[in-house]
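User: Run a structure prediction on this.
Assistant: Running it now.
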Amino acid sequence: MKGKKGIRCPKCDYQFPTSLCESCGAENLKKSSYCCRCGMELVELVEKETSIDWESRKLCSDGACIGVINEQGVCKECGKAYSGEPG
């Protein structure tokens, strides 16, 4: 797996979402409590990412999906492009 960025599952090759440690730059699983390299507490990163503006979010237009639309206009869960009001 050398040369690939990110943290990947060795069995299915799924790339897990990651964030970088502000102290040492190591890649950690998102929402980790501590850095895997230097041990710095990553609570501040978790708090920043979980602050959601519930009033301005757009729900996925696929009626079977529970996701929300990201800044690029696609659902964070299923990846479908936003096509209007949920159906």
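The first strand starts at residue 7 and ends at 8.
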